[in-house]
Amino acid sequence: MNQIPTGRRRGGLRIWVLVLFALYAGWYWYSNRSVDPLTGQTVMIDRSISPEQEKALGLQAWRELLQQERPLPADAQASRQVRAIAERLITVIPEVSDALAAEHQMQASHIEKSFDWDVNVLQSDQVNAFCLPGGKMAVYTGLLPVAQNDDAIAVVMGHEISHALLRHGAQRMTRERLEQIGQAAGAASGMDQGTLRTVMSAYGLGSALPYARSQETQADELGLMLAAAACFDPHEAIPLWQRMDQTSGGGAPPEFASTHPSAGTRIQHLEELMPKAEQYRARFCKQPTPTPALPN
């Protein structure tokens, strides 16, 4: 009786393992797809990750952060400035969401209704800001001199709020689970660690990083519409990103190896969005109470 060589048996088993994992990954990807009403794009969010779970994770991260970093006093000029900008942006979220969803013949989910908003300014040289799922938001003092005015800071804050509204955190968690399936498939099939690292690196450059950049582009668009609708000047987004590029001193990685678009790509996209932003400003802007100037 002829026996199948051990190497061939192992090779056949590896193929079957990879096939089974591929089928499971395909089912996971297909069953967790949905269309985001604010962008009209198909996204993948694990159905087991609810907005409430995201909010709880955001609150946990917020509490941990506040144990490490102390916000500026609520009556500080920068705190009052940033909170006034945030209030204007938050106020227009429902109508901007409805307008964007209507462009795609859909209805907005209004995830913001469950948010418990909290906005603080943190003392740090970081030129950054963030908004966690559930509405916990911070602006670092290092951003203020680069922003220079409330219109520019509103563009940044609108961008960060948009990440939370678009559930980008849940989307990243879902892709991480899909990546774990791929890593498990490689390990179960007997793939050596060097090959597995090469495969995952190729996946990062070919899929994960472009996906992250597309999220940044989505947040840029929604954030610009929020800023314009809240009566901020959307045109300030262009000099803002020119200053941001100068601040980096050319130290940013090339776009293909980054989670963010290059400053040039970002500026070009924002320029293309200006006519739409002007329409949103004309449609939704109601003259606001002036906000105090940012400190130099």
Distance between the termini: 87 Å
Strand content: 5-15%
Topology as a string of helices (H) and strands (E): HEEHHEEEHHHHHH
Query: Going across the major beta sheet, what is the strand order?
Result: 3-5-4
How many helices in DSSP terms? 9
Which quaternary structure do these chains form? single chain
Radius of gyration, taken over Cα atoms and rounded to an integer in Å: 22 Å
Structural class: mainly alpha
- The rough form would be described as globular
Structure description:
- The protein is mostly helical and 296 residues long.
- The protein has one domain (42-284).
- Helix content is 62%, strand content 6%.
- The strands form 2 sheets. Strands 3-5-4 form a 3-stranded mixed β-sheet, with helices on both faces. Strands 1-2 form a two-stranded antiparallel ribbon.
- Strand 4 and strand 5 form a beta hairpin.
- The chain is globular, with a radius of gyration of 22 Å.
- The protein starts with 5 loop residues before the first helix and ends in a 12-residue tail after the last helix.
- The model is unreliable at 199-207 and 292-296 (pLDDT under 50).
